[in-house]
Write a structure and sequence with these properties.
CATH superfamily: Toll/interleukin-1 receptor homology (TIR) domain
Structural class: alpha/beta
Number of domains: 1
Number of strands: 4
Number of helices: 5
Radius of gyration: 14 Å
Strand order of the largest sheet: 2-1-3-4
Largest sheet: 4 strands, parallel
Oligomer: single chain
Length: about 110
């Protein structure tokens, strides 16, 4: 059986990219294969198609929330994950960044996840 190329999709607001990049590097050191847009999207490709493909294939997703809240594309990705993951019970993990407010406002279907 083929092993998936990535273990976890890192869904984040582009304003939080430096913090998420650091986390992605730590995950790689632990043997976890993160899908991080900065590393995987090549210039000139239709990135929306690449995202759609990864969302349908990935084992899990981490949704990062910092002081900047959810970004516009991050919200689109989250909706897609909720739709795809609801049918196959894959983990969707909310991750609060160090600068997140103590009680960040999360979308209803994300806030019920641990």
């Amino acid at each position: 059986m083929n092993q998936p190329q990535f273990n976890v999709f890192l869904c984040h607001n582009s304003q939080d990219k430096p913090q998420v990049r650091s986390i992605a590097e730590c995950l790689k050191k632990q043997g976890i294969r993160p899908w991080f847009d900065e590393w995987e999207l090549r210039p000139g490709v239709r990135w929306q198609q690449v995202l759609e493909q990864q969302i349908s294939q990935i084992e899990s997703a981490a949704v990062f929330v910092g002081s900047n809240g959810l970004g516009p594309w991050q919200q689109q990705e989250l909706r897609a994950f909720l739709q795809v993951f609801a049918n196959n019970d894959k983990p969707l993990i909310p991750v609060l960044l160090t600068d997140a407010s103590e009680k960040p406002e999360l979308p209803l279907f994300l806030s019920e996840r641990m």
